[in-house]
Amino acid sequence: MQQNKIEQSSVVGAAELVPIVKGSHVYLVDGSGYIFRAFHALPPLTRPSDGLPVGAVHGFCAMLWKLLRESKASEAPTHIAVIFDAGRETFRNDIYPKYKAHRPPPPEELLPQFPLIRDAVKAFNVACIELDRYEADDLIATYAREAVNAGGDVTIVSSDKDLMQLVRPGVTMFDGMKAKRIGRDEVIEKFGVPPEKVIDVQALSGDSVDNVPGVPGIGIKTAAELISTYGDLDTLLARAGEIKQPKRREKLIEFAEQARISRQLVLLKEDVPLEIAIDALGVRDPEVDALLGFLRAMEFSTLTKRIAEGLGAEAPPPLAISVGASLKSKAQSTSDKIEALAEEEAFEGATPAAAVAAGTAIARAKAIDRSKYETITTRTRLEEWVRKAGQTGYVAFDTETTDLDATRADLVGISLAVAPGEACYVPLGHTGPSNDLFGGADNRPPQLPITEALDVLRPLLEDPSVLKIGQNIKYDALVMKRYGIDVTPFDDTMLISYALDGGRNAHGMDVLAERHLGHACMTFAQAMGQAPGAKKSEKTFAAMPLDKATEYAAEDADVTLRLWKVLKPRLAAEHVTTVYEMLERPLVPVIVAMEHAGIKVDRDILARLSSAFAQRAVRLEEEINGLVGHKFNLGSPKQLGELLFDRLKLPGGKKTKSGQWETRANLLDELAANEELDGDARRLINTMLEWRQISKLRSTYTDALPEFIDPSTGRIHTSYALASTTTGRLASSDPNLQNIPIRTKEGREIRTAFIADKGMKLVSADYSQIELRVLAHVADIPQLKKAFADGLDIHAMTASEMFGVPVKDMPGEVRRRAKAINFGIIYGISPFGLANQLSISREEASDYIKTYFQRFPGIRDYMEATKKHAHAHGHVETIFGRKIHYPEINTKNPSMRGFLERAAINAPIQGSAADIIRRAMIRMPGAIEKAKLDSARMLLQVHDELVFEVAEADAQKLIDVARRVMETAGEPAVKLSVPIHVDAKAAYNWDEAH
């Protein structure tokens, strides 16, 4: 950063000085505001040659050129500068450390564009200015003061409300996007007070975006009314006791000092020590070769031509870029399409909402006609489609296979779409039967050999300048990885939908097509020619006739592309681009690598455990039969209900409409918690529970896991669902490795079967009480924060606070109760639930919860505030900005409303913890590579735990890397106000490593 400043200073310093005199006109451009408006104005744009994100650079250049062109035609400036923020930390953080602390980091695809935008300003031969420890607004304020003092006029090119305090005679603002001048009248319309009183209004109302605290409960309208009545902030605070409204009076008295601090934060400095004198900002014509050369290097072909025409110069030829062998001589990516839109007057300065509308219109403009899809059976036609995809810059891509398990699936075909309605299917592994259109001598439909087809497709699928668009692209990427192809870069419509609508609806393609396109996709049964309601066919996709296979598969690619055009612009419009780019998309290749790696499992250990569990279950059955007095089938709901409620007359029985006793899943647990059971009944219920647990462990794990061991690798390759929970947690299936009990002896025994390969060790790295730490942070609980900072036993500390018991030599039972309450509160536990968990009365459980909230009132405040927000907005947010929707939370059904309120309270905590481990997973491969740990790879994610495999000699080094990455996973986006701690250990099996 400093080196850039020195270079820029020398360039500016070498320019001829132009003193400010009466009649001078200084344009001060808010560069940081320009960047974000440019970034969100257009759909995503990447440079064809290397896939570098350049959408913000393009938008910035177009906006700056438009400003220079139009200002020259009207009131030409004599001086101009583009001014940027130098960094997040400024002198205001010394005044108030939480200033801007809640701001999310810029989207990851924007980060590499910041230096390019500064280069763009220099290419236009305009002064580019920034200064450490100061915001751009402070530099603008200082330059404006100097210009006016010297007799000049100033136009601040920005719509930022924080700059409106600077409006005065000689200083106006200009919103380039709306072509609107902002003077004194417009400021009064915005704030209700003239510019000179804006600071006082902002000091009272605060600013949630910049985390300026203000006075709670006072908004801009009320603040303007108070300042208009009392004249200024100091007078208002001095006379606060005269205010009639009691709440307003109390708040102003209580938060007077906070208001004064807020005034310091919003007041712009007009005496910044400038490194570049205002006289050095004289307007200079661009150096044609430098400017056009920069635009050419960015590969903005259309913009380069337009600016060249404006400068009266000849546009340089576009760069010739070889992409994917010699598939094309000149890369033409999405940029040309987007640039063409950008040149249209109707699209210039388009809002995110307009981009959404445009995307939806494009997606729905052409009706889906399956008869128009093409079946590709020759190399020549496939090469033409690949060339077309390369020229377009993006392609929707889908695979058809033999298995739902991507790690075992063989390719049957691949479908592509380059535009709505333009899609094809490439059959690769169809076995017949043939249909009327196709048929070879061997009764197999004609199709390209798979190796030949993949030779043609590989350059496209790995081409960094062509975006691959998929629906649940993790599956397709895993399939292609088995064939040695890494699909990159990509977008995933399922994950885009998840980032936008998590909790609102499902994210499968059929559901999304119905919801966003009004289209019902062809089903597999329809493609196979089955009548509605007919028995499911045992035929695989490979046996589907090619005409129907083409309709079915190409439609998937067509629909995926259309969904992308509808959904992708919404990310910017709804302010969740960062969630998608920071938490969703970059996780896909990490999960692909994990699923591909799998984890080794010892069959012999599972077999021994299965045998031991079977013998134990038999003994428990005999014990149950003895207690019942006859042979009893515990697996029969009918027999269980009759025993419990007809014979034993136990409480809590309910009959179904058919007259049979209801035997819900948690019935035995509820009965076991009943204090009124006699000794024999309690022994029977507990024995039944033990039998059920052993039987479930046997059927779910020791008997089932061997079936999932891949014979070619000797490893289990679980599948992770990235968009199946509302909170951002990953889910594991086929098999589910996240539900193996860790707190029971039997569960730990099962984990001993998960082993390291020869010469390797497993490393388990587990977050310690991450959800409680997140709770302490988001609810701002001083006692919990201090306990975590001091490294105390959080459950013992809670018990001491609640029950007045010294931490030293605390009885285990007391700590256990506090632990149950700590975790129960996170999940909105009720007195009934806590009573069941601790085997105490509801009255005692209710007293515990009441005492808990008395000791930690901030938690109750957090819960009430979260419920209020959920009811008002229909969603809650994690600390990373993930929105978790509860569209039915205002239901009139009290039971459902209570359930959704508890879920909404828990979601920001559980969701934030899930986001933290996602960030850790995303950063882990890079950290491992940087540490030169070639043998290390990440194998599993189990809620708050990551499991790795590494060479024995490198185990400790990996532990150090894992801890460092996991404990700083939220930074710089979010730095928790409590320390994050990770427990990590290496061993030869999973149980020992935990």
Automatic annotation (TrEMBL):
Report whether Nucleotidyltransferase shows up as a keyword of the record.
yes
Q: Which SUPFAM superfamilies match?
A: 5' to 3' exonuclease, C-terminal subdomain (SSF47807), DNA/RNA polymerases (SSF56672), PIN domain-like (SSF88723), Ribonuclease H-like (SSF53098)
Record-annotated DNA-directed DNA polymerase family A palm domain positions:
747-954
Task: Tell me the enzyme class.
Answer: transferase
Name all 3'-5' exonuclease domain ranges: 373-572
Q: How does it assemble?
A: Single-chain monomer with multiple functions.
**By what name is this protein known?**
DNA polymerase I
Q: Which organism is it from?
A: Hyphomicrobium facile
